[in-house]
Amino acid sequence: MNVIKIVNKVYPEIAKDYSCNAKVELHNNVYSRLSGIPEMSGEDNASAEYNWSKNKIYIYTDNMNSEEDIIKALIHECVHSNQNKELFDAYYLIGLDYNTNPYEIEAEYEEKNWTKYKLKI
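and the corresponding structure tokens:
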């Protein structure tokens, strides 16, 4: 599966629909991104993440197993790009977890729209 090919085809439309102007970077995983060592690995299984200060979406290719995974990750992180960073962090500080954080719930809800962007390859 060619992740970059899929990103290049679907991201412009997703970005337009979600008013997202973040740059997308591909990395094997969070450890390779942070260390700069492509073959670095660890136990974290994040599939993607949004960085507010750099306005970047990181897609972790080790965890992208399908076109659906890639599209959902792009939608999810685009939703985060429009959310308030301080409030996002505050939800976690008050003890909410991923499954109860309203911002995560919103981002996951939007993932249901992934078929709109499904490629016809």
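(Above: one complete record from the training split.) The longest strand covers residues 23-27.
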